[in-house]
Amino acid sequence: NNANASAQASAADLASATLSAQGELVTNYLSLRETDAEIDLLKATLEGYERSLQIAKNRYSVGVAALSDVLSAQTQLYATQADLAGMALQRDQLEHAIAVLLGKTPASFRLQPAEWNGVVPQVPLSLPSTLMQRRPDIAAAERQVAMANEQIGIQRSAYFPSLSLSASYGSSSQKVSDLFDASTLLWSIGASISQTLFDFGARGARMDQVRAAYDQSVATYRQTVLTAFQNVEDQLSGTRVLERQYGLRQQASEVADRNEQLMVNQYRAGQVAYSEVVTAQASALSSRRSLVQSALQRQTTAVALIQALGGGWSAEPD
Length: 318
Known about the structure:
Strand content: under 5%
Shape: elongated
Mean pLDDT: 79
Helix content: 55-70%
Distance between the termini: 25 Å
């Protein structure tokens, strides 16, 4: 009845808020661990920069290098130390955000640094679109439809599209435009569904109000479903593209590391200017950080996909 539908809609709204908070908490936690990884990376990089500075100083002290080499090495060292301080601030802010989401005061909450697990959940190659029926926003919109026409009792299967979402291709087996086809989906607003769902024996203003309320609720429901499909498609596309991007960034980082070491060795032997060392070191550090950030993107995209599907790969609510 209408009271039950209203209660279910309210429960769905609560579930939506809960899912959103859970997603934010997980994303913040992963971001904090990625920050820990970047902090460790910067600390290791600074050790290398200190060695390079010492090499420059040694070469300057024996008159085979200019003072500018030492100054360049010092500039790069200090700038990277400043970056490290900025990462410490970012970590504090993420820790504070996590504390608030857990209902604690930031001053009383601490998460000790820990090794980051960059593993990304494996996305099934094919996902039934009916998984999204568990999405709280869809459930709430569905109950609003039921409340708008409580005497009919519409079946869920009558107006939720049945599609296959493919992570391997990043698109559904039917085009989004098909969702507007009344012959494909009974929940489209049209004369055929009106004849099924309304008692044409009723007359007057009340009937007009019921029909208007129903039409509005169905339009909202349809838009909610379409937005949900867009959200899932975005995350599936992101999953596929980010996996390939991560592999390329990994290769770039390995090459940049080799080039950095080559330039340091050649500088020590007096074969290249220190400016080439600085360029190689900056490129290597940028590549390392991009790789770590890319890994975080893959994880947070997986979290977003889980949220978009209403909480996971299973069709049953948790």
